């Protein structure tokens, strides 16, 4: 379903509200594991991966809760310097050793917008990294997806937002739709309709306990209660 977002050799930007995108990252990683060979490399900039949500997606679709977890590798970052190192160095090294189904950098804008960086450092990091990610996508023929709250970024860091728009191969707007998701390409040429499914939780797959046997209380004709025999 999400294959248009995962075209090999492309650097793709998905945009939307940060809270919405955080949930969609689980959906996209789950899809990549189930529909593409190889490993999903998730560069996580805000502890966004939720193992319980991922397990629920598996269970809701007929798989074991931990299906595919050995092919999902997560690198968490806390500072903009860690973020730049992971995206500019560690990712390149990892792509030399694994066949990747997808690379996800999410949220891409958060740490690059940190007050720990001066304006010129932010611009330098983003400009260099976007070109670097495009090169990696082509060299390894892997889809690389960056996730951005673009509306907010235009308000707080318009130069960085413009760099991101101009530095990717495609952009998609993602939003919740019913009980699924909808993605619309910024060119307006393609729309991915939501995957209809009932919202489930781990409780839907729990084994129901055996009902307790409750003895019946018998009444005599006079109305007095008689305890049942053992």
Overall CATH architecture: 3-Layer(aba) Sandwich
- Overall pLDDT: 86
Please provide the count of β strands: 10
Biggest beta-sheet profile = 8 strands, mixed
Apparent shape: globular
Helicity, in percent?
A: 25-40%
Strand order of the largest sheet: 3-2-4-5-1-6-7-8
The CATH superfamily appears as P-loop containing nucleotide triphosphate hydrolases
* Helical/strand content category: alpha/beta
- Along the chain, the helix and strand elements come as EHEHEHEHHEHHEEEEE
Q: Number of DSSP helices?
A: 7
Q: Kindly, what is the distance between the CA atoms of the first and last residues, rounded to a whole number of angstroms?
A: 60 Å
Integer-rounded radius of gyration: 24 Å
């Amino acid at each position: 379903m999400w294959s248009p977002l995962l075209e090999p050799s492309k650097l793709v930007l998905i945009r939307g509200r940060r809270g919405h995108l955080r949930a969609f990252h689980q959906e996209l990683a789950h899809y990549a594991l189930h529909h593409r060979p190889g490993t999903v490399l998730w560069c996580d900039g805000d502890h966004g991966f939720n193992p319980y949500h991922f397990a629920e997606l598996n269970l809701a679709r007929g798989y074991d809760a931990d299906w595919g977890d050995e092919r999902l590798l997560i690198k968490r970052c806390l500072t903009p310097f860690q973020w730049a190192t992971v995206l500019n160095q560690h990712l390149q090294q990892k792509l030399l050793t694994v066949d990747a189904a997808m690379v996800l950098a999410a949220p891409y804008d958060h740490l690059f917008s940190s007050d720990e960086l001066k304006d010129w450092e932010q611009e330098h990091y983003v400009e260099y990294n976007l070109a670097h990610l495009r090169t990696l996508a082509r060299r390894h023929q892997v889809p690389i997806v960056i996730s951005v709250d673009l509306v907010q970024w235009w308000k707080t860091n318009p130069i960085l937002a413009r760099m991101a728009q101009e530095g990717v191969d495609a952009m998609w707007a993602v939003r919740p739709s019913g009980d699924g998701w909808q993605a619309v390409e910024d060119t307006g040429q393609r729309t991915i309709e939501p995957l209809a499914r009932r919202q489930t939780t781990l409780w839907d797959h729990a084994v129901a306990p055996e009902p307790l046997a409750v003895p019946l209380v018998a009444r005599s004709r006079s109305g007095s209660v008689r305890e049942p025999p053992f």
